[in-house]
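In this section we walk through a basic example: taking a raw amino acid sequence and producing a predicted 3D structure, encoded as discrete structure tokens. The instruction is simple. Fold the sequence below.
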Amino acid sequence: MPSAGRLLQFPSRPTGRDEIEKISSAYLRALLEGERPNQDTILESPDTLLAIVAGLKKSMNVNPSLVASESVAFYRALGARDAFGAFDEKDYFLGETALLAGVAYRILGDRSASEVWLDRAEAGFRHTVNPSPLLSCISYQRLALRCEMGRFDEVAELAPLLARTFERLKMEHDQVKCLFLEAAALRQGGHPEEALPKFHAITEERFFDYPELRGLAYSNLADIHAENDDYDSATTCYENAIPLLSKAQMPAAVAHLKSVVGDVFEKRGKLGAAISAYQESIADYEALGMKTWVAHVRIFLANALLEAGRAREAEWQTLAALPTIDDEKMANEAVAAVALLAKSAQARHLDRLALKDVRNHLRSAR
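The resulting token sequence is shown next.
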């Protein structure tokens, strides 16, 4: 009877599980200490690289700059190799490292770089054995990028469609992420009443295993309550959000929360407390290398400083923020106000109305 196929001999692993964990932990620890480990050892084993990729994912919200640079380095090193692994490992890891870079650059606010790396990730994943889940993850990142670019109507329409894809793939965490993205787009697109039940759904105990999403949902609920001058409800949501975001190791979300707290203090006329909260938020964002959000909060801080009679400091914050606002096209719908604000800041006489216009535009996209 003829054979229907042939057995393929898998290459033996160069190390056991414990040794893989030891190598990957040492590598990641060296990176965090500012050293540059040799990648050649890592690229001798797909299993070891898989452990490194998992470690970089965990570091995404804590050190996106490091994740971006290291992912790009691995992508380049893999691309220079003729082969890696036995089957589709090279294509898979080209996709994974490019996706890591794309996400990191999105978090850092470099949207053009993020788009390029997401395209590279797609090119790698399309050659893998089971590309559907991987390509769906890229689709989510592209939707998140659109949301950050202010294309809220598109995101609100497309996020539920992608959520159904994740449901069919039994990827619950990604499905809930889509629900969050839809709610965020609705809220930022001027429909907070439609976003409220979706955020509330994410805070339910059945999603206990997703503290980052529950914390972000509470943070957005706090924003909505604050915008409606319901400061008691906002404070309760802040208190619920902080331990969840801390547990999930999401310093960027905590930095955002500090900026929102500053906004609440400013609305209530507590300018000193508002200025301190904004300054803490900026320091946190700077430590993470998130330049677009640094610029974003600087405008809020400038407005509070101006209201507090500290005009020179307000001018400095504005001048520091404007280059990034212009480069990253953060206020395309307020171009005239940005131009007027820049001119007035350079003349050392800030235009209050222009500053408020730019601040209000950035607030709507937060």
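Looking at the output, two observations stand out. Confidence is low (pLDDT under 50) at residues 1-14. The radius of gyration is 23 Å. In the next section we compare this with other chains.
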